[in-house]
């Protein structure tokens, strides 16, 4: 008798099968909700609080896109995706946008048919060791045991790095960041390796952070970029230029505090174009005139988002580094809004 | 005679000696200790080793439990409080994370103002299974049992009341048709009933739901499957899987014993294939591969997908357990059923299955317990299981980053309570159904 649950729900599910193949923008507008694939939980980047409200650096991108498209940053449905399910979730149309600290690589871009929009965080793999070990450089790690998460690009990077430097190491494989921390704290490995942003957060959460040091070497390039499906150029443009809009807003000094003032019109034609008081850039991507105003209001410009979620004022305390504006010696460089 | 004795024996006692207490070494705790713990050199050594192991365990974890902190808002505060109370080197449990996030362990992201719905569904579960499980529950309550699955789905997921009502109607319709055609033979009746039901589901249910909902819009607020998590998810999957896998397992076991080649082959292939494949593989199929087979845009509920796969997995194991029970029945039981002139289904229902199932109870319950625990594997398809999914995202909150053992202890304790209850119930059931005279 209870099989009926299955059949009944199956019927309901097949009813719910909506129209397919329409443009993502139309889908999102019709649904009134952006479906955003996020991490199942990564400190500073995506985490739900006690009430289930998501926040974080990646989540801020979802909110900005939702604000640009729907005018309301809260109209986002967050779908937590694991490392294994993230690309299928995007490919099968389960999510509209994947903002899940995903490294932009050749094969993912081409073979997996993803479209990476714009890098929102330049990460890289680093090492953490105990201070009393006396190690000051990754080059001194010959023969060390290293805790490493399985099934990630960090595992491959580690192998490449030690091979290139003609060193040996003993991998201690762990399943998750939490387990890696436990193993490292318990002394099961001499060094712990993962993305530098993750290392900083991990170290900050230790009971005695000063007993541990993060080595200066960064052994890989990890440009993290929100991704969309290939084949919907308009949607790609929307996400890409929303991110560029946040970056450019920081460059031009548009903040969530002064945006209402600036949106009335300024002497700077580029700001005017971005905020819709001059020309109509929004219409070119199928959005309203004030799309970027809404996006920037959602969580502030790129710099504000960074400062609020992972920046030096937060417990995670990441410096801007590569993620500073190009004018400040970083790599954040938005093409002109023209 | 007595004379001679009186002369040959110096003294004859003519009263009974008062009873003496047994020697200290032969009574109470000392005797118990000597008999059970120190009855030989090997047992003595083992006992001492055991005591040492317990000592190691307690001495390591005693402090951790003793120093536990409940009132704090982050792991940093926990550490501060422990350092203040017990000295800078003390370690302690930070149970505050459980206090602040317990509702997420239980309900996942289910909206807090709607918690009454899963709680009610859980309470009604006992009303539904009561008449099946306990003799003291009045049998009249049993009418509620077939309605419960629909009610539970409606309570948990919400939506229009007409969905579950009309789906239930479909099955009632199938039953009515079955009754009506029954006099032409049971196979005929079953086929016609099934066809009518399937046609109803394919063509009538959808429009009818829309129609009725448009006329009388009664419903609960919808809750998406993505909001499910923690024990709500584990218990939903577990109960759904158990309820569906037992009948499916019985059918598969009978199918494997069947003389009909097609049915037997199908059953054997199904059982052997499912048992030969790891559960995680099936879960990945449910979450990833099905997406490619289904038309794009199809929103086939992930919990439903996982539940179907978990059910198939458990059913294959249950089938083999029940086949063991069937094989243990003496041949005479089958012959006796034939001799009474019972047809196949009556023989199975009245004679064979009651005995086979009774023999299989321990194995069936083991499979259920295993399945319930396996529901935590759904973490690999992005669902928030209570053991890893929920703690991982709680750790993603910087306040609780660094918490490790506390969630395991908490979740482990709840799993133990639930599974131990299942295990005790199965022993109770075995005793109740005991028919041999011992």
Search tags:
heterodimer; A: 338 residues; alpha/beta; D-Maltodextrin-Binding Protein, domain 2; 2 domains; five-stranded mixed sheet; three-stranded parallel sheet; globular; disordered N terminus; B: 438 residues; mainly alpha; MetI-like fold; two-stranded antiparallel sheet; 2 strands; transmembrane (chain B); MetI-like_sf (chain B); cell membrane (chain B)
Apparent shape of chain B: globular
Number of strands of chain B: 2
- CATH class value of the largest domain in chain A: Alpha Beta
Q: State the fourth-level CATH superfamily of the largest domain in chain A.
A: Periplasmic binding protein-like II
In terms of quaternary structure, the protein is heterodimer
Strand order of the largest sheet of chain B: 1-2
Give the termini distance of chain A in whole angstroms.
64 Å
- What's the order of the H and E elements of chain A? HHEEEHEHEHEEEEHEHEHEEEHHHHHH
State the helical fraction of chain A: 25-40%
Strand content of chain B: under 5%
Q: What's the CATH topology name of the largest domain in chain A?
A: D-Maltodextrin-Binding Protein, domain 2
Main location (chain B): membrane
InterPro entries (chain B): AA_ABC_transptr_permease_3TM, ArtM/GltK/GlnP/TcyL/YhdX-like, MetI-like, MetI-like_sf
GO molecular function (chain B): transmembrane transporter activity
Family (chain B): Belongs to the binding-protein-dependent transport system permease family. HisMQ subfamily.
Quick overview:
The complex is a heterodimer of chains A (338) and B (438). With 338 residues, chain A is of the alpha/beta class.
Topology:
The complex is a heterodimer of chains A (338) and B (438).
Chain A: H1 3-16, H2 24-31, E1 34-39, E2 47-48, E3 54-55, H3 57-70, E4 76-81, H4 86-91, E5 97-98, H5 106-110, E6 114-116, E7 121-123, E8 125-130, E9 144-149, H6 153-164, E10 169-174, H7 177-185, E11 191-195, H8 196-205, E12 212-214, E13 222-224, E14 227-229, H9 233-251, H10 259-262, H11 269-275, H12 281-284, H13 291-299, H14 302-309
Parallel strand pairs in A: 1-4, 1-5, 9-10, 9-11
Antiparallel strand pairs in A: 2-3, 6-14, 7-13, 8-11, 8-12
Chain B: H1 2-8, H2 28-36, H3 41-66, H4 75-86, H5 96-107, H6 116-133, H7 144-157, E1 159-160, H8 162-181, H9 186-215, E2 219-220, H10 230-257, H11 261-276, H12 279-293, H13 302-328, H14 331-339, H15 344-374, H16 389-395, H17 405-432
Antiparallel strand pairs in B: 1-2
Helix pairs in contact in B: 5-10, 6-7, 7-8, 8-9, 10-11, 10-13, 10-15, 11-13, 12-13, 13-15, 15-17
């Amino acid at each position: 008798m209870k099989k009926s649950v299955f059949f009944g729900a199956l019927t309901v599910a097949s009813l719910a099968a909506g129209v397919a193949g329409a443009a993502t923008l139309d889908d999102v507008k019709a649904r009134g909700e952006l479906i955003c694939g996020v991490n199942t939980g990564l400190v500073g980047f995506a985490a739900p609080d006690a009430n289930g409200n998501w926040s974080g650096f990646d989540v801020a991108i979802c909110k900005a896109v939702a604000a640009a498209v729907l005018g309301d940053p809260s109209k986002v449905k967050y779908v937590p995706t694991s490392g294994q399910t993230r690309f299928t979730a995007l490919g099968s149309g389960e999510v509209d946008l994947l903002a899940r600290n995903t490294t932009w690589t050749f094969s993912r871009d081409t073979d997996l048919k993803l479209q990476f929009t714009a890098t929102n965080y330049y990460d890289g793999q680093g090492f953490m060791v105990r201070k009393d070990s006396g190690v000051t450089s990754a080059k001194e790690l010959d023969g060390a045991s290293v805790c490493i998460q399985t099934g990630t690009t960090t595992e491959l990077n580690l192998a490449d790095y030690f091979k290139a430097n003609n060193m040996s190491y003993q991998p201690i494989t762990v399943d998750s960041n939490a387990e890696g921390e436990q193993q490292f704290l318990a002394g099961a490995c001499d060094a712990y390796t993962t993305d530098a942003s993750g290392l900083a957060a991990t170290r900050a959460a230790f009971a005695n952070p000063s007993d541990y040091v993060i080595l200066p070497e960064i052994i890989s390039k990890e440009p993290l970029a929100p991704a969309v499906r290939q084949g919907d150029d308009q949607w790609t443009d929307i996400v890409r230029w929303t991110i560029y809009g946040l970056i450019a807003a920081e460059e031009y000094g548009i903040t969530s505090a002064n945006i209402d003032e600036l949106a009335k019109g300024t002497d700077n034609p580029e700001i005017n174009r971005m905020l819709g008081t001059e020309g109509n850039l929004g219409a070119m991507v199928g959005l309203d005139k004030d799309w970027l105003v809404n996006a920037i209001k959602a969580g502030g410009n790129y710099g504000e988002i960074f400062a609020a979620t992972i920046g030096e004022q937060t417990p995670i305390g990441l410096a801007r580094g590569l993620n500073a504006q190009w004018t400040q010696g970083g790599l954040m460089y938005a093409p002109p809004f023209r | 005679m007595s004379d001679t004795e009186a002369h040959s024996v110096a003294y004859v006692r003519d009263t009974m000696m008062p009873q003496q207490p047994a020697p200290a070494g032969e009574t109470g705790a000392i005797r118990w200790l000597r008999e059970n713990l120190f009855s030989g050199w090997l047992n003595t050594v083992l006992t001492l080793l055991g005591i040492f192991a317990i000592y190691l365990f307690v001495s390591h974890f005693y402090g951790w439990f003793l120093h536990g902190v409940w009132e704090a808002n982050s792991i940093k505060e926990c550490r501060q409080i422990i350092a203040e109370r017990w000295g800078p080197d003390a370690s302690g449990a930070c149970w505050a994370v459980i206090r602040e996030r317990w509702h997420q362990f239980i309900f996942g992201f289910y909206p807090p103002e709607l918690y009454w719905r899963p709680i009610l569904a859980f309470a009604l579960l006992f009303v539904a299974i009561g008449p099946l499980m306990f003799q003291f529950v009045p049998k009249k309550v049993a009418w509620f049992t077939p309605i419960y699955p629909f009610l539970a789905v409606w309570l948990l997921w919400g939506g229009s009341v007409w969905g579950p009502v009309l789906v239930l109607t479909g099955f009632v319709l199938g039953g009515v048709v079955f009754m009506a055609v029954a006099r032409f033979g049971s196979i005929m009746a079953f086929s016609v009933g099934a066809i009518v039901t399937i046609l109803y589901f394919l063509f009538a249910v959808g429009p009818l739901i829309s129609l009725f909902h448009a006329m009388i819009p009664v419903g609960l607020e919808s809750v998406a499957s993505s909001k499910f998590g923690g024990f709500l998810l584990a218990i939903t999957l577990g109960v759904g899987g158990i309820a569906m896998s037992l009948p499916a397992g019985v059918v598969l076991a009978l199918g494997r014993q069947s003389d009909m080649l097609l049915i037997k082959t199908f059953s054997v292939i199904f059982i052997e294939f499912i048992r030969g494949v790891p559960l995680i593989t099936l879960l990945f199929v449910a979450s990833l591969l099905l997406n490619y087979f289904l038309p794009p845009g199809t929103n086939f509920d992930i919990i439903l997908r996982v539940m179907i796969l978990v059910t198939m997995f458990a059913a294959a194991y249950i089938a083999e357990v029940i086949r063991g029970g069937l094989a243990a029945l003496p041949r005479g039981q089958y012959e006796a059923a034939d001799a009474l002139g019972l047809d196949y289904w009556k023989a199975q229902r009245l004679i064979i299955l009651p005995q086979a199932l009774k023999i299989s109870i321990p194995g069936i319950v083991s499979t259920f317990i295993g399945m319930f625990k396996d529901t935590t594997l759904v973490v690999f398809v992005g669902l928030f299981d209570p053991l890893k999914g929920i703690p991982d995202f709680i750790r993603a909150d910087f306040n609780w980053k660094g918490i490790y053992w506390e969630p395991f202890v908490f979740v482990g304790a709840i799993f133990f309570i639930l599974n131990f209850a299942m295990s005790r119930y199965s022993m109770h059931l075995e005793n109740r159904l005991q028919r041999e005279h011992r």
